[in-house]
Amino acid sequence: MTRHEQLIEALQHNFGFDSFKGNQEAIINNLMDGKDTFVLMPTGGGKSLCYQLPSLLMDGVAIVISPLIALMKNQVDAMRNFSEEDGVAHFLNSSLSRPEIHAVKADVLAGKTKLLYVAPESLTKDENVDFLKEVKISFYAVDEAHCISEWGHDFRPEYRRIHPIVERIGKAPIIALTATATPKVQHDIQKNLDMLHATVFKSSFNRPNLYYEVREKTEDVDKDIVKYIRTMSGKSGIIYCLSRKTVEELAATLNANNIPSLPYHAGMDAATRSTNQDAFLMEKVQVIVATIAFGMGIDKPDVRFVIHYDIPKSLEGYYQETGRAGRDSGEGQCICFYSPKDIERLRKFQQGKPIVEQEISNLLLFETQSYAESPICRRKLLLNYFGEEYNQEKCGNCDNCKKTYRMMDATELLGLMLETIHQLNEKFRSRHIVDIIKGNETSTAVSYRHVDLENFGCGEDEDETVLHAIIRQALLKGYIKKDIESYGDLKLTPEGRKFMRRPTKFEVPIEVHDDENDADMENGIGACAAADDVLFSILKDLRKKLSKRMNVPPFVIFQDGSLEAMATSYPITLEELQNIPGVGVGKAKRYGDEFVKLIKGYVEENDIIRPEDLRVRTVAKNSARKIAIIQAIDRRVALDDLAERLGMSMEEMLEEIEAIVYSGTKLNIKYFIEEVVDPDEEFDIYDYFRHAENDSIKLAMEELGEDDYDEINVRLVRIKFHSELGN
Fold first, then answer.
1. pLDDT digits (tens, 9 = 90+) for 47-84
2. Does the predicted model carry a pTM greater than 0.85?
3. Beta strands in 43-151 (DSSP E)
4. Is there a domain that residue 55 lies in?
């Protein structure tokens, strides 16, 4: 029997397949010939089989080094399902008790075990090294090998200790496998494992069945996700978030909207993580909401959508995580929500880390930002990033390929932009640069006498969105950069100064909307977010009447966003009204009667079918923390001390307090304001809000003067204002 026949027979007997995919057979042959092997194969390409099958045919036990306990459990379970002998595969890690470890070692010594999964931390323990020295090892498989490289998206220092430990245990062929590696990462992996002369097998990174889309991340991102998942009824999906807090809150929101979901993150105990993972694999829930701790090696072929709630830290991570969709070559939708603010926040998180680590992280973030903001085919960008040429201009299966763009010559405008940054001594952010070019007489422009600059108003006829697009493209092209230390001041780069001396053609892609959409915009459609413009107008009139009667600004009663929500969901009871964003129990009781009476009459008069069954329900987030904040304020605890105690930034603390006050709870923070805000300044801020048309902090800062008033102080006084007049 030839080796090919032997492999096909083993493949059919052990895994039920009639043929190999792609490079699988060549990889297995190379490994069985005793040669080091490097495998770069996209998620869903069948990497696991490349070491599972030869382990069954070769003499000895294969040591599989894997980073996650969940991954090990999943793979061991799969191997046991294929075999008649449970002992064929085991894992050795910190989750096992002492008797369980003895049982595993007994099976290995008895020759029953062909695959032994080991965490890198367990591999380095002296007792395990001594044990493995007694065992005949067929080969070492380093799974998720990108963890070795500092340039990879999931660097783990313990992975860099694998090679010296392997040398201690005893030499055997090494197979390193990963789904994501740029040429630089690949070289780093091979160098660290001392396998620069290994045979390299690269499969195409192109997954034609995956649809890639980047969407703007708004304040209503939770609602956008709920509405999207409702279009994917009964289909399994994964949502990736960067923080554990977001994971917990989003899972709760989905469940409140009848979308069966479970959270998964490293802060949960191992048993809960395992239970939640199994529930998703067994389709007891539709969605798993997780940090990047979830997914490595998860063998679920029919994941139909992968959503990124936050922009990923690297394109390698993004590609691997999206690769968990459509592994059966069926439908796979990859939706990423993007906001430039998320990029800035991730960059700030790097402050205080070693310079080299910051530089690597910033470069990876820059590539991710370029991907999110580029109008070029998403697939083309991804494949080129991994060193693979994609010769088609359009793939036809990403959002950019479905849009129409025109290229706008912005050479002259970029020159004006760079000149303006230079005139401002590189000390202001993009918002102010645009204001100067547009000729907006903001308080900052007036107080700094920037209205006298030569460039003030030089682009007054230009669209602000175009000017911001030019800044983004200039950042991506390297003409300017944002200074992290000064929270985003724009600085000229050497390339930017060169452009100022000798301009070259600079184009910006502008999305072209169809005539119908353009007409809608011209007619003002979409100016109001309410579904029922007539009801919205009537509610505004009622609010105005109440504000005169109570002698408070209209926005103190209900803000526009709350009225828009009322004109969309038609609440006809106080209980329904208190679920409207920005209302809460307190405001519903204080102001709600007249509003629900009006809405109920309007609904009956116009025979309106209310969309109650389609309403996106929100959940109370961190109620325990809110209670702790209220109690601490009652005890007059300094807010900055309270924020530190709760592990929050001052900005996060203010957001929590604002949410509490806007929902109708009265809080007295006068004691803290007296400590940190000058009395004259407090009077001016309070007086401003008393006469303002709305309570926008942005407008308040422009009116009061960004350089004369601290934004945190303005927010503190606004909280006091709302609490005293609105609750």
1. 889 999 999 999 999 999 987 666 676 778 777 766 66
2. no
3. 61-65, 89-92, 115-118, 137-142
4. yes
